[in-house]
Amino acid sequence: MTNQGKSTAKRWYDDACGTALALELVGERWSLLIVRELMFGPRRFGEIKAQLSGISANVLTLRLEGLEQAGILRRRKLPSPASVQVYELTPWGYESEPIFQTMGRWATRSPCHDPTLPLSPASIMMSLRAMLDAGRPDATTATIAFRFARDAFVARLAGGALEIVRGDIGAPDVVFASDPTTLARVVYGKWPVAEAEAEGVLRIEGDRALLERFVTLFSLPPKVR
């Protein structure tokens, strides 16, 4: 955002608090979810829209423009042969991930949280990073590929930290091929892997025992009373 843009932009709040400014930057409907969809790398306009059920093309365009003006994301044209325009977070935009993790852990404590609602691939991947029990002593190391219908990720667990990148790369220990909702049921609902396989909604390749161990490392926080 230019200095001129900063000085002439309409303010929502007459408040110097950083939280108030944060709401002005990403507080409009869909803005935070757009940032979420870009957290694992560049996405085309259509790819973003496909993961945000209910957003119109016009609203998505407006939100992308606003986030670009705020310096949170930028547009870039991929080199040939792709030669398509993508949207990606700026380094400052990527710094927002801890906000998502904290908000996610906080909000899922609400009795209103409905874990059966749809999830995007990026959403469930961010959830795994937020809900990993990092304080639990565990020496498990693993590389797990998650393959969804239109997206793929690789998670590397080591030293109590979980790194996740978009793509289907390397030689993973385990491949989890399914959909985000099924993954959430297996990880958080502790739905037995064998039952999910029997229903035909999950396919596992590789070290099954390792996967069984991996899914025990995540849990949702307790609900408020």
Strand and helix map with partners:
Layout (H helix, E strand, L loop, with lengths): L2 H6 L9 H9 L4 H7 L7 H6 L6 H13 L3 E5 L7 E5 L1 H4 L2 H11 L13 H11 L10 E6 L4 E7 L2 E6 L7 E4 L2 H8 L5 H6 L4 E4 L1 H7 L11
Parallel strand pairs: 3-6
Antiparallel strand pairs: 1-2, 3-4, 4-5, 6-7
Question: If you had to describe this structure to a student in words, what would you say it looks like?
Answer:
The protein is of the alpha+beta class and 225 residues long. 39% of the residues lie in helices and 16% in strands. The chain contains eleven helices and seven strands. The chain has helices at 3-8, 18-26, 31-37, 45-50, 57-69, 91-94, 97-107, 121-131, 180-187, 193-198, 208-214, and strands at residues 73-77, 85-89, 142-147, 152-158, 161-166, 174-177, 203-206. The strands form two sheets. Strands 5-4-3-6-7 form a five-stranded mixed β-sheet, with helices on one face. The protein has a two-stranded antiparallel ribbon with strand order 1-2. A hairpin with a 2-residue loop joins strand 4 and strand 5 (161-166). The longest helix is centred in the N-terminal third of the chain and has 13 residues, at 57-69.
